[in-house]
Each structure stands twice: as C-alpha cells, then as structure tokens.
Design goal:
By secondary structure, the protein is mostly helical. The chain contains four helices and no strands.
C-alpha cells in the first residue's frame, strides 16, 4: 500500500527558503542585522589593521549596534511568531508542520541578531 506524499514534504526547509518565505518585515529586520554584522566585521578588521586613533566614529556606531541588534532580533522573532499564530487562527490547522517554518524564522532572527551583536562587541573592544 502506497501513501500519498504531500507536495510540501518533498522540499527540505533551508535558511534560504526561510528567508524567501519570510514576511517583508522579518526580511527587513534580517537584512538590517546582516548589514550591521558585516559593518561590525569590517570595522573589526580595520581596527586590527590600524591604531585605535581616528576610530571614534566607528566606536559610536558599534555602541549603537550593540544596543539595537538585540531589540531588532527580538522584534523579528516576535513578528514571526505573530505571523504563526495568525496563520493558525485563520486556517484552524494546528500541527508542527504548519508552525515549524515560522518558528525557524523567529529563531533565525535571534541567531543573526546574536551574531551581529557578537561581532559588534568584539569590534568595539578592538577599536576602543
């Protein structure tokens, strides 16, 4: 006896697929966090290559990034969870397969925010 396979079961959930399926708000948060992390990495590399003099503007940026990235990550996570619960409420489908992509999206937001915060913190210590 063969079982029918649901079409969505044929595709594996990847980070790229999560990003493409994310809501526009979460995409914006994720892009902002990624850009912040890349900027912190660039400042870190510049700070390692140069003396800390002349890096006051970079230090201010990093301080702002360290304050803002956790809040942005939590906002992205909260927005993703809101989307999950609205989807469950609107479809009356309550199963893990329906909620898993949104939960993964929320966790991805927190993970990228944590990475950006880590890079900003390390870079700040170098240029300070």
């Amino acid at each position: 006896m063969t079982q029918a396979i649901a079409p969505h079961a044929l595709h594996r959930l990847t980070v790229m697929l999560m990003f493409t399926d994310a809501t526009p708000v979460v995409k914006l948060v994720l892009i902002g966090l990624l850009l912040t992390g890349l900027a912190a990495l660039a400042i870190l590399l510049l700070g390692l290559a140069r003396s800390s003099r002349g890096m006051a503007g970079a230090a201010r940026f990093l301080e702002t990034a360290m304050a803002a990235t956790p809040i942005a990550a939590l906002f992205g996570a909260a927005w993703g969870l809101i989307t999950i619960f609205l989807g469950i409420a609107n479809t009356n489908v309550v199963n893990l397969a329906a909620a898993a992509p949104g939960i993964a999206e929320a966790i991805l937001s927190v993970a990228i925010g944590s990475l950006a915060l880590l890079l900003a913190g390390i870079a700040h210590r170098v240029v300070r």
